[in-house]
Amino acid sequence: MHIDALPEHILQRLDRESEIPLARQVYTILSDLILNGELSAGVKLPASRSLAVDCGLSRNTVMFAYEQLLAEGYVDAQTGSGTFVSETVPVSNWFGDEIESDSDSGLDDQYSHLSARGADLIRSAQASPEQWQPFIAGVPDTSLFPRDIWLRLQRKHWQKAPPSMLSYAHGAGYLPLRKVLIERLRLSRSVNGKAEQVMMISGLHNAISLIAHLLIDPGMTVWMENPGYWGAATALKMAGANIVPIDIDAEGLAPTEEQISQPPKLIFVSPSHQYPLGHVMSLARRRMLLDYANAHGAWIIEDDYDSEFRFAGLPIASLQGLDAYQRVIYLGTFSKTLYPGMRLAYMVLPEALVSHFATGLSEMYRDGRLIEQAVLADFIAEGHYAAHVRRSRLRYARRAALLRAAIAEELGTDWVSPNQEAGLHAVIHLPEGTDDVAIAKAAKATNIIVRPLSRYYLGEAKASGLLLGYANVPDEIIKPRFAQLAEIIRRQLGA
Protein backbone atom coordinates (compact mmCIF):
# COMPACT_ATOMS: atom_id res chain seq x y z
CA MET A 1 0.00 0.00 0.00
CA HIS A 2 1.23 3.47 -0.86
CA ILE A 3 1.41 5.50 2.31
CA ASP A 4 -0.61 8.34 0.71
CA ALA A 5 -3.59 5.96 0.47
CA LEU A 6 -3.55 5.20 4.20
CA PRO A 7 -6.03 7.92 5.31
CA GLU A 8 -8.56 6.80 2.69
CA HIS A 9 -8.17 3.15 3.80
CA ILE A 10 -8.75 4.11 7.42
CA LEU A 11 -11.81 6.21 6.59
CA GLN A 12 -13.38 3.29 4.68
CA ARG A 13 -13.24 1.06 7.77
CA LEU A 14 -13.98 3.57 10.54
CA ASP A 15 -17.41 3.25 12.12
CA ARG A 16 -18.16 6.39 14.06
CA GLU A 17 -21.43 4.89 15.37
CA SER A 18 -19.71 1.88 16.89
CA GLU A 19 -19.27 1.37 20.64
CA ILE A 20 -15.62 0.55 19.94
CA PRO A 21 -13.49 3.65 20.63
CA LEU A 22 -12.05 5.32 17.53
CA ALA A 23 -8.49 4.96 18.83
CA ARG A 24 -9.03 1.18 19.11
CA GLN A 25 -10.44 1.08 15.59
CA VAL A 26 -7.43 2.94 14.16
CA TYR A 27 -5.08 0.58 16.03
CA THR A 28 -6.94 -2.48 14.64
CA ILE A 29 -6.86 -1.18 11.08
CA LEU A 30 -3.13 -0.43 11.22
CA SER A 31 -2.18 -3.70 12.94
CA ASP A 32 -4.16 -5.67 10.32
CA LEU A 33 -2.34 -3.86 7.52
CA ILE A 34 1.03 -4.64 9.13
CA LEU A 35 0.24 -8.31 9.76
CA ASN A 36 -0.98 -8.97 6.23
CA GLY A 37 2.04 -7.24 4.75
CA GLU A 38 0.30 -4.25 3.14
CA LEU A 39 2.42 -2.01 5.38
CA SER A 40 5.85 -3.60 5.12
CA ALA A 41 8.75 -3.39 7.53
CA GLY A 42 10.61 -0.08 7.44
CA VAL A 43 7.70 1.96 6.08
CA LYS A 44 7.37 5.28 7.85
CA LEU A 45 3.89 6.07 9.12
CA PRO A 46 2.48 9.58 8.72
CA ALA A 47 2.98 11.95 11.63
CA SER A 48 0.14 11.66 14.12
CA ARG A 49 -0.95 15.28 13.54
CA SER A 50 -1.00 14.81 9.76
CA LEU A 51 -2.95 11.52 9.89
CA ALA A 52 -5.43 13.01 12.34
CA VAL A 53 -6.17 15.92 9.99
CA ASP A 54 -6.53 13.68 6.92
CA CYS A 55 -8.94 11.33 8.77
CA GLY A 56 -10.92 13.99 10.57
CA LEU A 57 -9.86 12.67 13.98
CA SER A 58 -8.35 14.28 17.04
CA ARG A 59 -4.60 14.02 17.34
CA ASN A 60 -5.00 12.22 20.70
CA THR A 61 -7.00 9.46 18.98
CA VAL A 62 -4.17 8.77 16.53
CA MET A 63 -1.51 9.12 19.23
CA PHE A 64 -3.28 6.53 21.43
CA ALA A 65 -3.40 4.13 18.46
CA TYR A 66 0.31 4.68 17.73
CA GLU A 67 1.21 4.17 21.39
CA GLN A 68 -0.63 0.83 21.46
CA LEU A 69 1.11 -0.30 18.27
CA LEU A 70 4.44 0.67 19.82
CA ALA A 71 3.68 -1.18 23.07
CA GLU A 72 2.84 -4.38 21.16
CA GLY A 73 5.84 -4.25 18.86
CA TYR A 74 4.14 -3.39 15.57
CA VAL A 75 6.14 -0.17 15.17
CA ASP A 76 9.38 1.40 16.31
CA ALA A 77 9.64 5.06 17.32
CA GLN A 78 12.88 6.84 16.44
CA THR A 79 13.30 10.17 18.20
CA GLY A 80 13.45 12.98 15.67
CA SER A 81 12.82 10.63 12.75
CA GLY A 82 9.27 9.31 13.18
CA THR A 83 7.36 6.02 13.55
CA PHE A 84 8.34 3.03 11.39
CA VAL A 85 6.73 -0.38 10.84
CA SER A 86 8.85 -2.98 12.63
CA GLU A 87 9.84 -6.43 11.39
CA THR A 88 7.04 -8.85 12.34
CA VAL A 89 8.16 -11.85 10.27
CA PRO A 90 10.33 -14.34 12.24
CA VAL A 91 14.02 -14.00 11.40
CA SER A 92 14.50 -17.76 11.76
CA ASN A 93 12.31 -20.79 11.20
CA TRP A 94 11.86 -22.99 14.26
CA PHE A 95 10.94 -25.90 11.99
CA GLY A 96 13.98 -25.78 9.72
CA ASP A 97 13.94 -25.16 6.00
CA GLU A 98 10.90 -27.32 5.31
CA ILE A 99 7.60 -27.36 7.14
CA GLU A 100 5.83 -30.67 6.66
CA SER A 101 2.07 -30.73 6.57
CA ASP A 102 0.35 -32.50 9.43
CA SER A 103 -2.59 -33.39 7.19
CA ASP A 104 -2.07 -37.13 7.62
CA SER A 105 -2.19 -37.06 11.43
CA GLY A 106 -5.93 -37.43 11.78
CA LEU A 107 -6.93 -33.78 11.70
CA ASP A 108 -10.33 -34.78 10.34
CA ASP A 109 -11.05 -36.50 13.64
CA GLN A 110 -13.15 -34.25 15.88
CA TYR A 111 -10.87 -35.12 18.81
CA SER A 112 -7.56 -34.57 17.00
CA HIS A 113 -6.76 -31.36 18.87
CA LEU A 114 -6.94 -33.18 22.23
CA SER A 115 -4.43 -35.37 24.00
CA ALA A 116 -5.14 -39.11 23.94
CA ARG A 117 -6.51 -39.09 27.48
CA GLY A 118 -8.35 -35.85 26.82
CA ALA A 119 -10.10 -37.44 23.86
CA ASP A 120 -10.90 -40.49 25.98
CA LEU A 121 -12.40 -38.23 28.65
CA ILE A 122 -14.66 -36.42 26.18
CA ARG A 123 -15.76 -39.60 24.39
CA SER A 124 -16.74 -41.32 27.63
CA ALA A 125 -18.17 -38.27 29.45
CA GLN A 126 -21.18 -39.09 31.64
CA ALA A 127 -21.89 -35.81 33.46
CA SER A 128 -25.49 -34.91 32.66
CA PRO A 129 -26.71 -31.39 31.77
CA GLU A 130 -30.13 -32.38 33.19
CA GLN A 131 -30.22 -32.03 36.95
CA TRP A 132 -33.84 -31.80 38.00
CA GLN A 133 -36.12 -34.08 35.99
CA PRO A 134 -37.39 -37.38 37.41
CA PHE A 135 -35.55 -39.75 37.98
CA ILE A 136 -32.08 -38.16 37.83
CA ALA A 137 -29.76 -40.06 40.18
CA GLY A 138 -27.60 -38.47 42.85
CA VAL A 139 -29.41 -35.13 43.13
CA PRO A 140 -30.89 -34.15 46.52
CA ASP A 141 -34.01 -32.10 47.06
CA THR A 142 -32.41 -28.67 47.28
CA SER A 143 -35.76 -27.07 48.13
CA LEU A 144 -35.28 -28.47 51.66
CA PHE A 145 -32.17 -26.39 52.27
CA PRO A 146 -32.79 -23.90 55.14
CA ARG A 147 -31.85 -20.75 53.30
CA ASP A 148 -33.01 -18.38 56.04
CA ILE A 149 -30.68 -19.92 58.62
CA TRP A 150 -27.78 -20.04 56.18
CA LEU A 151 -28.35 -16.43 55.15
CA ARG A 152 -28.35 -15.28 58.77
CA LEU A 153 -25.05 -17.03 59.49
CA GLN A 154 -23.55 -15.85 56.22
CA ARG A 155 -24.49 -12.25 56.93
CA LYS A 156 -22.82 -12.47 60.33
CA HIS A 157 -19.53 -13.67 58.87
CA TRP A 158 -19.52 -11.25 55.94
CA GLN A 159 -19.99 -8.34 58.33
CA LYS A 160 -16.99 -9.21 60.48
CA ALA A 161 -14.70 -11.11 58.09
CA PRO A 162 -11.07 -9.92 58.20
CA PRO A 163 -9.27 -9.47 54.86
CA SER A 164 -7.52 -12.82 55.30
CA MET A 165 -10.87 -14.62 55.02
CA LEU A 166 -11.31 -13.22 51.51
CA SER A 167 -7.90 -14.34 50.30
CA TYR A 168 -6.60 -17.71 49.14
CA ALA A 169 -6.78 -20.50 51.67
CA HIS A 170 -3.43 -22.07 52.49
CA GLY A 171 -3.29 -25.53 53.95
CA ALA A 172 -6.15 -27.79 54.94
CA GLY A 173 -9.00 -25.31 55.44
CA TYR A 174 -10.84 -23.48 58.21
CA LEU A 175 -9.80 -25.11 61.50
CA PRO A 176 -13.07 -24.53 63.46
CA LEU A 177 -14.95 -26.36 60.69
CA ARG A 178 -12.48 -29.23 60.76
CA LYS A 179 -12.94 -29.48 64.53
CA VAL A 180 -16.75 -29.71 64.49
CA LEU A 181 -16.64 -32.01 61.48
CA ILE A 182 -14.34 -34.60 63.04
CA GLU A 183 -16.54 -34.67 66.13
CA ARG A 184 -19.61 -35.34 64.01
CA LEU A 185 -17.82 -38.02 62.00
CA ARG A 186 -16.59 -39.67 65.20
CA LEU A 187 -20.15 -39.95 66.53
CA SER A 188 -22.02 -40.75 63.32
CA ARG A 189 -19.48 -42.71 61.27
CA SER A 190 -16.99 -44.08 63.86
CA VAL A 191 -14.20 -42.18 62.14
CA ASN A 192 -10.94 -41.90 64.08
CA GLY A 193 -8.68 -38.89 63.94
CA LYS A 194 -7.98 -35.32 64.97
CA ALA A 195 -9.03 -32.04 63.43
CA GLU A 196 -5.55 -31.66 61.97
CA GLN A 197 -6.17 -34.79 59.85
CA VAL A 198 -9.24 -33.25 58.20
CA MET A 199 -8.77 -31.40 54.93
CA MET A 200 -11.43 -29.29 53.21
CA ILE A 201 -11.38 -29.33 49.40
CA SER A 202 -13.60 -28.13 46.56
CA GLY A 203 -15.45 -31.30 45.62
CA LEU A 204 -14.87 -35.03 45.59
CA HIS A 205 -13.35 -35.05 42.11
CA ASN A 206 -10.65 -32.60 43.21
CA ALA A 207 -10.00 -34.77 46.26
CA ILE A 208 -9.51 -37.90 44.15
CA SER A 209 -7.36 -36.01 41.67
CA LEU A 210 -5.13 -34.66 44.45
CA ILE A 211 -4.75 -38.14 45.96
CA ALA A 212 -3.79 -39.59 42.60
CA HIS A 213 -1.25 -36.87 41.81
CA LEU A 214 0.43 -37.12 45.20
CA LEU A 215 0.42 -40.89 45.74
CA ILE A 216 0.84 -42.50 42.32
CA ASP A 217 2.90 -41.96 39.20
CA PRO A 218 1.49 -42.47 35.69
CA GLY A 219 1.11 -46.16 34.92
CA MET A 220 0.72 -47.30 38.52
CA THR A 221 -2.15 -49.67 39.25
CA VAL A 222 -5.39 -48.61 40.92
CA TRP A 223 -8.18 -51.02 41.83
CA MET A 224 -11.68 -49.73 41.08
CA GLU A 225 -14.99 -51.30 42.01
CA ASN A 226 -16.78 -52.69 38.96
CA PRO A 227 -19.39 -51.36 38.47
CA GLY A 228 -18.29 -48.21 40.19
CA TYR A 229 -18.39 -44.44 40.27
CA TRP A 230 -17.53 -43.11 36.83
CA GLY A 231 -16.42 -39.74 38.27
CA ALA A 232 -13.70 -41.41 40.35
CA ALA A 233 -12.57 -43.48 37.38
CA THR A 234 -12.36 -40.35 35.24
CA ALA A 235 -10.26 -38.43 37.78
CA LEU A 236 -7.90 -41.39 38.21
CA LYS A 237 -7.53 -41.97 34.47
CA MET A 238 -6.74 -38.32 33.88
CA ALA A 239 -3.95 -38.63 36.46
CA GLY A 240 -2.46 -41.45 34.38
CA ALA A 241 -3.51 -44.38 36.57
CA ASN A 242 -3.67 -47.92 35.22
CA ILE A 243 -7.17 -48.81 36.40
CA VAL A 244 -7.92 -52.48 37.07
CA PRO A 245 -11.68 -53.16 37.47
CA ILE A 246 -12.49 -55.44 40.41
CA ASP A 247 -15.86 -57.18 40.44
CA ILE A 248 -18.38 -56.69 43.22
CA ASP A 249 -20.28 -59.49 44.95
CA ALA A 250 -22.74 -59.47 47.85
CA GLU A 251 -19.88 -58.89 50.33
CA GLY A 252 -18.19 -56.11 48.40
CA LEU A 253 -14.88 -55.98 46.54
CA ALA A 254 -14.03 -59.47 45.21
CA PRO A 255 -10.63 -59.63 43.48
CA THR A 256 -9.53 -62.82 41.73
CA GLU A 257 -6.42 -64.73 42.78
CA GLU A 258 -4.58 -63.32 39.78
CA GLN A 259 -5.53 -59.77 40.73
CA ILE A 260 -4.51 -60.35 44.35
CA SER A 261 -1.08 -61.50 43.15
CA GLN A 262 -0.50 -58.08 41.52
CA PRO A 263 -0.94 -55.51 44.32
CA PRO A 264 -2.12 -52.01 43.41
CA LYS A 265 -0.90 -48.70 44.79
CA LEU A 266 -4.45 -47.37 45.35
CA ILE A 267 -7.76 -49.09 46.05
CA PHE A 268 -11.01 -47.16 45.58
CA VAL A 269 -14.05 -48.51 47.47
CA SER A 270 -17.45 -47.37 48.75
CA PRO A 271 -17.87 -50.00 51.49
CA SER A 272 -20.85 -48.66 53.46
CA HIS A 273 -23.12 -48.13 50.45
CA GLN A 274 -21.50 -49.36 47.25
CA TYR A 275 -22.10 -47.10 44.29
CA PRO A 276 -24.12 -47.89 42.27
CA LEU A 277 -25.37 -51.28 43.52
CA GLY A 278 -25.88 -50.41 47.19
CA HIS A 279 -24.10 -53.43 48.73
CA VAL A 280 -22.52 -53.17 52.18
CA MET A 281 -19.02 -54.65 52.47
CA SER A 282 -18.91 -57.44 55.03
CA LEU A 283 -16.75 -57.15 58.13
CA ALA A 284 -14.63 -60.11 57.04
CA ARG A 285 -14.00 -58.53 53.65
CA ARG A 286 -13.14 -55.20 55.29
CA ARG A 287 -10.54 -56.79 57.54
CA MET A 288 -9.05 -58.71 54.62
CA LEU A 289 -8.81 -55.50 52.60
CA LEU A 290 -7.09 -53.60 55.42
CA ASP A 291 -4.59 -56.40 56.03
CA TYR A 292 -3.86 -56.68 52.32
CA ALA A 293 -3.30 -52.92 51.92
CA ASN A 294 -0.95 -52.86 54.89
CA ALA A 295 1.02 -55.88 53.69
CA HIS A 296 1.59 -54.35 50.24
CA GLY A 297 1.90 -50.66 51.08
CA ALA A 298 -1.32 -49.75 49.26
CA TRP A 299 -3.57 -46.81 50.09
CA ILE A 300 -7.34 -47.23 50.34
CA ILE A 301 -9.69 -44.42 49.27
CA GLU A 302 -12.96 -44.82 51.14
CA ASP A 303 -15.81 -42.97 49.47
CA ASP A 304 -18.47 -42.82 52.18
CA TYR A 305 -21.23 -42.38 49.63
CA ASP A 306 -24.68 -41.34 50.94
CA SER A 307 -23.73 -42.47 54.44
CA GLU A 308 -26.04 -39.92 56.08
CA PHE A 309 -29.15 -41.32 54.42
CA ARG A 310 -29.77 -44.75 55.89
CA PHE A 311 -33.47 -45.45 56.36
CA ALA A 312 -33.42 -48.55 58.55
CA GLY A 313 -31.17 -49.70 61.38
CA LEU A 314 -28.04 -48.07 62.68
CA PRO A 315 -25.52 -46.33 60.40
CA ILE A 316 -22.81 -48.58 58.98
CA ALA A 317 -19.45 -47.83 60.60
CA SER A 318 -16.71 -46.54 58.32
CA LEU A 319 -13.84 -48.69 57.07
CA GLN A 320 -11.51 -45.98 58.34
CA GLY A 321 -12.70 -46.63 61.89
CA LEU A 322 -11.31 -50.19 61.66
CA ASP A 323 -7.98 -49.11 60.19
CA ALA A 324 -5.20 -49.74 62.69
CA TYR A 325 -2.56 -49.33 59.97
CA GLN A 326 -3.28 -45.75 58.85
CA ARG A 327 -3.82 -46.79 55.23
CA VAL A 328 -7.32 -45.38 54.65
CA ILE A 329 -8.11 -41.95 53.22
CA TYR A 330 -11.73 -41.21 54.12
CA LEU A 331 -13.75 -39.03 51.73
CA GLY A 332 -17.05 -37.26 52.26
CA THR A 333 -18.98 -34.41 50.69
CA PHE A 334 -21.73 -31.91 51.46
CA SER A 335 -23.13 -32.12 47.92
CA LYS A 336 -25.90 -34.54 48.90
CA THR A 337 -26.60 -33.40 52.46
CA LEU A 338 -26.72 -29.65 51.66
CA TYR A 339 -26.65 -28.84 47.94
CA PRO A 340 -24.38 -29.87 45.03
CA GLY A 341 -23.48 -26.31 44.07
CA MET A 342 -21.64 -25.87 47.37
CA ARG A 343 -18.73 -27.88 45.92
CA LEU A 344 -17.25 -28.66 49.31
CA ALA A 345 -15.81 -32.03 50.28
CA TYR A 346 -13.44 -33.28 52.94
CA MET A 347 -10.79 -35.89 53.56
CA VAL A 348 -9.65 -37.51 56.79
CA LEU A 349 -6.02 -38.36 56.12
CA PRO A 350 -3.55 -40.76 57.73
CA GLU A 351 -1.19 -38.73 59.89
CA ALA A 352 1.79 -39.41 57.63
CA LEU A 353 0.06 -37.63 54.72
CA VAL A 354 -1.32 -34.54 56.47
CA SER A 355 1.43 -31.99 55.87
CA HIS A 356 2.16 -33.19 52.33
CA PHE A 357 -1.48 -32.97 51.31
CA ALA A 358 -1.88 -29.49 52.82
CA THR A 359 1.04 -28.31 50.70
CA GLY A 360 -0.17 -30.18 47.63
CA LEU A 361 -3.66 -28.72 47.93
CA SER A 362 -2.29 -25.18 48.09
CA GLU A 363 0.03 -25.77 45.13
CA MET A 364 -2.50 -27.48 42.83
CA TYR A 365 -5.85 -25.90 43.60
CA ARG A 366 -5.33 -22.75 45.72
CA ASP A 367 -8.58 -23.45 47.52
CA GLY A 368 -10.44 -20.65 49.25
CA ARG A 369 -14.08 -20.13 50.23
CA LEU A 370 -13.12 -19.60 53.86
CA ILE A 371 -16.24 -17.59 54.62
CA GLU A 372 -18.45 -20.45 53.39
CA GLN A 373 -16.42 -22.82 55.57
CA ALA A 374 -16.91 -20.52 58.57
CA VAL A 375 -20.67 -20.40 57.93
CA LEU A 376 -20.78 -24.19 57.69
CA ALA A 377 -18.86 -24.54 60.97
CA ASP A 378 -21.56 -22.52 62.76
CA PHE A 379 -24.30 -24.37 60.88
CA ILE A 380 -22.99 -27.68 62.24
CA ALA A 381 -22.10 -26.42 65.73
CA GLU A 382 -25.57 -24.93 66.28
CA GLY A 383 -27.30 -28.19 65.34
CA HIS A 384 -28.84 -27.00 62.06
CA TYR A 385 -26.94 -29.54 59.97
CA ALA A 386 -28.13 -32.51 62.01
CA ALA A 387 -31.71 -31.24 61.93
CA HIS A 388 -31.56 -30.72 58.16
CA VAL A 389 -30.18 -34.23 57.58
CA ARG A 390 -32.97 -35.73 59.74
CA ARG A 391 -35.67 -33.89 57.78
CA SER A 392 -34.11 -34.91 54.48
CA ARG A 393 -33.75 -38.52 55.56
CA LEU A 394 -37.45 -38.75 56.42
CA ARG A 395 -38.49 -37.29 53.07
CA TYR A 396 -36.15 -39.50 51.09
CA ALA A 397 -37.29 -42.60 52.98
CA ARG A 398 -40.90 -41.82 52.05
CA ARG A 399 -40.01 -41.29 48.41
CA ALA A 400 -37.97 -44.50 48.32
CA ALA A 401 -41.01 -46.38 49.64
CA LEU A 402 -43.27 -44.75 47.02
CA LEU A 403 -40.87 -45.75 44.26
CA ARG A 404 -40.64 -49.34 45.54
CA ALA A 405 -44.43 -49.54 45.54
CA ALA A 406 -44.60 -48.14 41.99
CA ILE A 407 -42.01 -50.65 40.75
CA ALA A 408 -43.86 -53.55 42.36
CA GLU A 409 -47.21 -52.43 40.94
CA GLU A 410 -45.98 -51.89 37.39
CA LEU A 411 -43.36 -54.62 36.99
CA GLY A 412 -43.75 -56.99 39.95
CA THR A 413 -42.11 -57.43 43.34
CA ASP A 414 -39.16 -59.33 41.84
CA TRP A 415 -37.98 -56.09 40.23
CA VAL A 416 -37.53 -54.30 43.55
CA SER A 417 -33.85 -54.15 44.52
CA PRO A 418 -33.07 -55.51 48.01
CA ASN A 419 -30.51 -52.72 48.57
CA GLN A 420 -32.86 -49.76 48.98
CA GLU A 421 -32.45 -49.02 52.65
CA ALA A 422 -30.09 -46.11 52.03
CA GLY A 423 -29.05 -43.44 49.56
CA LEU A 424 -30.72 -41.29 46.94
CA HIS A 425 -31.34 -43.80 44.16
CA ALA A 426 -32.70 -47.27 43.46
CA VAL A 427 -31.51 -49.85 40.94
CA ILE A 428 -33.77 -52.04 38.87
CA HIS A 429 -32.02 -54.92 37.13
CA LEU A 430 -33.06 -55.79 33.59
CA PRO A 431 -33.01 -59.20 31.91
CA GLU A 432 -29.67 -60.23 30.44
CA GLY A 433 -29.05 -58.69 27.06
CA THR A 434 -31.48 -55.79 27.50
CA ASP A 435 -30.29 -52.54 25.94
CA ASP A 436 -30.47 -50.24 28.97
CA VAL A 437 -28.89 -47.39 27.01
CA ALA A 438 -31.77 -47.53 24.51
CA ILE A 439 -34.28 -47.42 27.36
CA ALA A 440 -32.52 -44.39 28.87
CA LYS A 441 -32.61 -42.59 25.51
CA ALA A 442 -36.30 -43.34 25.01
CA ALA A 443 -37.05 -42.17 28.54
CA LYS A 444 -35.15 -38.93 28.02
CA ALA A 445 -37.41 -38.12 25.08
CA THR A 446 -40.28 -37.98 27.61
CA ASN A 447 -38.24 -35.87 30.09
CA ILE A 448 -37.49 -38.84 32.33
CA ILE A 449 -33.79 -39.14 33.15
CA VAL A 450 -32.43 -42.53 34.18
CA ARG A 451 -28.88 -43.79 34.07
CA PRO A 452 -28.06 -47.11 32.36
CA LEU A 453 -26.26 -49.48 34.72
CA SER A 454 -24.09 -50.79 31.90
CA ARG A 455 -22.33 -47.41 31.68
CA TYR A 456 -20.91 -47.91 35.19
CA TYR A 457 -18.78 -50.87 34.15
CA LEU A 458 -15.17 -50.45 33.13
CA GLY A 459 -14.74 -52.36 29.91
CA GLU A 460 -17.43 -54.84 28.94
CA ALA A 461 -20.71 -54.44 30.82
CA LYS A 462 -21.63 -57.47 32.91
CA ALA A 463 -25.23 -56.51 33.62
CA SER A 464 -27.91 -54.10 32.48
CA GLY A 465 -30.27 -52.09 34.59
CA LEU A 466 -31.41 -48.58 35.44
CA LEU A 467 -30.52 -46.14 38.22
CA LEU A 468 -33.53 -44.15 39.36
CA GLY A 469 -33.06 -41.18 41.65
CA TYR A 470 -36.01 -40.31 43.84
CA ALA A 471 -34.70 -37.66 46.25
CA ASN A 472 -35.76 -34.65 44.17
CA VAL A 473 -38.96 -36.14 42.71
CA PRO A 474 -42.17 -34.77 44.30
CA ASP A 475 -44.20 -37.49 46.02
CA GLU A 476 -47.27 -37.05 43.82
CA ILE A 477 -45.50 -37.64 40.51
CA ILE A 478 -43.41 -40.69 41.43
CA LYS A 479 -46.17 -43.17 40.58
CA PRO A 480 -47.40 -41.64 37.28
CA ARG A 481 -43.91 -40.91 35.98
CA PHE A 482 -42.70 -44.41 36.79
CA ALA A 483 -45.76 -45.79 35.00
CA GLN A 484 -44.50 -43.97 31.87
CA LEU A 485 -41.03 -45.43 32.35
CA ALA A 486 -42.43 -48.91 32.90
CA GLU A 487 -44.26 -48.70 29.60
CA ILE A 488 -40.99 -47.81 27.86
CA ILE A 489 -39.28 -50.78 29.55
CA ARG A 490 -42.06 -53.16 28.50
CA ARG A 491 -41.84 -51.97 24.90
CA GLN A 492 -38.08 -52.54 24.91
CA LEU A 493 -38.57 -56.04 26.33
CA GLY A 494 -41.28 -56.77 23.80
CA ALA A 495 -43.77 -57.52 26.56
Overall description:
By secondary structure, the chain is an alpha/beta fold. It has helices spanning 6-13, 22-35, 48-55, 59-71, 116-123, 147-160, 175-189, 204-215, 230-238, 257-260, 283-296, 354-364, 370-381, 384-411, 436-444, 475-493; strands at residues 75-78, 82-85, 198-201, 221-226, 242-249, 252-253, 266-269, 299-303, 328-333, 345-348, 425-429, 451-452, 465-469. An eight-stranded mixed beta sheet has the order 3-10-9-8-7-4-5-6, with helices on both faces. The longest helix has 28 residues, at 384-411. The protein is elongated, with a radius of gyration of 30 Å. The model has no long low-confidence stretch (mean pLDDT 91).
User: How many β-strands, per DSSP?
Assistant: 13
- What count of helical segments does DSSP give? 16
Q: Report helical residue fraction.
A: 40-55%
Cα radius of gyration in angstroms: 30 Å
Say what oligomer this is: single chain
Mean pLDDT over all positions: 91
State the separation between the terminal residues, measured CA to CA: 77 Å
Order of helices and strands: HHHHEEHHHEHEHEEHEHEEEHHHEHEEH
**Which segments are poorly predicted (pLDDT under 50) over 5 or more consecutive residues?**
none
Question: Which shape, going by the Cα principal axes?
Answer: elongated
Beta content comes to 5-15%
Quick one: biggest sheet? 8 strands, mixed
Q: Give the structural class.
A: alpha/beta
Spatial arrangement of strands, main beta sheet: 3-10-9-8-7-4-5-6
